[in-house]
Amino acid sequence: MKKKGYVLYALLLTHIISQAQVAPGDIAFVGYNADNNDQFTIITTNYLEDGTQIYFVDAGWTGTAIYASEGGILWTVPSGGVPTNTMVTFTGGGAGGFTTFPSGNLEAGVTVSSGTIAASGIAASMALTTNGDQILAFTGSVASPTFIAAANFNGAWSWTGTNNSEQSLLPPGLTAGTNCVLLSDRDNGKIDCLLLPDPASVSDYNNAAYWVYNDATRYTLPPTLGTCEFLLPLELISFYGTAHTNGNTLTWSTAHEMLLSGFEVQRSVDGSDFIPLTFVPAVGTSNNVITYQFIDDVTTASQYYYRLKMIDNDDSFTYSEIITISQTQNDAAYLFPNPVGQMVTIVIPENTLIETIQLFTSNGSLIREIQYNTTNNYLQLDVSDLASGMYILRINSTKQYQSLSFMK
Q1: What does DSSP say about strands 53-57 and 39-44: parallel, antiparallel, or unpaired?
Q2: pLDDT tens digits, one per residue of 253-275
Q3: Of 26, 156, 178, 268, whose CB count within 10 A is highest?
Q4: Quick one: pLDDT band at residue 242, thresholds 50, 70, 90?
Q5: DSSP, residue by residue, 56-123
């Protein structure tokens, strides 16, 4: 039985790691300085899981590959991940750029405001030129990139074969004005937060009309005018559901609420046609993590689809992702809130004898083991001493082993 539990844990961890996907538009550039020291800032428009890696290069896209004579850096998201609407600033080293020629090693003094950076493995320098340049962001590999964002401050998406280091075609998968930005040929530029719509969308960050730039003076990065960090009215950081004998329990957590009216919980039997079930008022405006819960008292052995209609005070709205719950899932444990603050509550299926609960780090190191020997349906665990990051709880009962993950 013990071996089976570890296999389940390994499978769960593999599943968690495989979900660290980044899509075009999940980050956006909001500032750059080509006048030394080189510098650029991105804003996250979606939550980035810890361990996610993103390449940044000043090499152009030739139409078939990344130009080989320009360098880059590799950024790793820190433990605990990076929340939506977080600005991250990258600053060049003592010689001005990020990597050296011809080795491609990091320059001394290169810094990043969150996470870690390393050389990309390209044996060339990454140094922004004042004659016009670009910064491309991608996942995958240098040989097989998946582009997620770009800032072109050369005035055109073009590749003529001359001054190659200062040119780029529009990378595949990106659309100018939607998930990448084309700017005039200027040495320094940034988003002017006072010009942005409220709330701002990803395409707004990539609209040149909301940028300011010049050839004479470096800008202070990250942008400090206005409230760029909190322009979106809501950050939905988790939404999940579990089946129980008294119905389906929906739990969701938010951060950075701003002028939010509330949530209309909707249900569907086919995943297409949804009906409203209830309205849950929001706190409204808060920078704290807030957890909400609703129980839908359906008990038939059917599969249901749920989504949240998140409504602003001005009646504008957006929808959450769709989740699926089946009443055949009611033998599974679950936990809340997620992310966790001081205490995590574990809800156990009825008539289940819990023997032990084990707490692991995301890399499999055992932190503690608690002996319970109880059939209580609700167990609380104090995790106030844990550092930020992802953790795994393994619940060992007389019926099964089950692993649950949570963020601290």
Answers
A1: unpaired
A2: 887 677 788 999 999 888 778 89
A3: 26
A4: confident
A5: EE-PPB-SSSB-TTS-EEEEEPPTT-B-TT-EEEEE--TTSSSB-TTT-PBPTT-EESSSEEEE-S-S
